[in-house]
Amino acid sequence: MVLLTRKIEFAASHLYNNPDLSPEENRRVFGKCNNPHGHGHNYTLEVTVAGDPDPVTGMVLDLKDLKEILEREVMQRMDHRFLNYEVPELAGQIPTCENIARVIWNLLDPKIKQGRLHRVRLYETPDLFADCYRNGAEGAGLS
Amino acid sequence: MRSGAQKGGVKIELGRRYRFAASHRLHSAELSEEENGRIYGKCNNPYGHGHNYILEVLVSGKVDPPTGMIANLADLDGFVEREVLEPFDHKSLNEDVEAFRDTVPTTENLCIEIFRRLKSFPNAKLERVRVQETSNNSFEYAGDNPEAFEG
């Protein structure tokens, strides 16, 4: 098995606010991410696909195909968008790195027909990222 | 708030990067001077030397629907600050950290010690730690769970 990773970057804004919590609780839990006008990040997405290289082409999957999938499923949905208001898949969820990564996993997994989606890593900043993997046998970390 | 979880689901980990600067000297009391010099090279310099270490901490857990978080970063940051950064940053690992009095502070051993210090984080499960000693070498440790490397 070989792992193939492709990286893209997109810029988006978001804010953290749970309407079930009071304004004071929102500020306490989410800190400056609760700023009502939102704020933004340059996100870096790394998508890793696992598979055996095709004996004819030597490829796990055609990078052009992966690029198109990422463009259609991620860039067009999220790049230069306000994630809370413009991405229906995130409606009703706090757009944390964890939740955005999971949404991206769920968008990409059914679209990747050659090889198998292995990991989605989403960096919100160089010092903060979330990883998604297919649910393993162990019980921890189920979401 | 909606959980966003789907049947068959995915496993989600949160990764956070921290930095600390520390000095060390690689020297084993069980080896001769010549052997120490041969094995550790310039890292055996008796006065030690330092690195800007980068520590990556990966934790997993259920994403809490009300917050959208595996763990609140403020809690994780505070725990790592107390357990690792405060005792290690701007310190001599050999002289200032009890665990390295009799153990060579290679970055392998540093990973193991940091994992030991962080595994009791109460709000999420520690999956693994990765320590980058320089931009050219890094080390990872997942305790007795090598499957943590598979995700």
Protein model, in words:
- The complex is a heterodimer of chains A (143) and B (151).
- Chain A contains 4 helices and 5 strands.
- Chain A is elongated.
- Chain A starts with a strand and ends in a 9-residue tail after the last strand.
- In chain A, strands 3-1-2-4-5 form a 5-stranded mixed beta sheet.
- Chain A has one domain (2-133): Tetrahydropterin Synthase, Chain A, CATH 3.30.479.
- Residues 137-143 of chain A have low confidence and may be disordered.
- The longest helix of chain A is centred in the middle third of the chain and has 16 residues, at 63-78.
- With 143 residues, chain A is α+β, with helices and mostly antiparallel strands.
- Chain B has 151 residues and is α+β, with helices and mostly antiparallel strands.
- Chain B has a domain at 13-22 and 50-142: 2-Layer Sandwich (Tetrahydropterin Synthase, Chain A).
- Chain B has 4 helices and 5 strands.
- Chain B has helices spanning 33-40, 73-88, 93-96, 107-118, and strands at 10-24, 49-60, 91-92, 125-134, 137-141.
- In chain B, strands 3-1-2-4-5 form a 5-stranded mixed beta sheet.
- In chain B, strand 4 and strand 5 form a beta hairpin.
- The mean pLDDT of chain B is 93.
- At the A-B interface, helix 4, strand 4 and strand 5 of A face strand 1 of B.
- Strand 5 of chain A pairs antiparallel with strand 1 (10-24) of chain B, so a sheet runs across the interface.
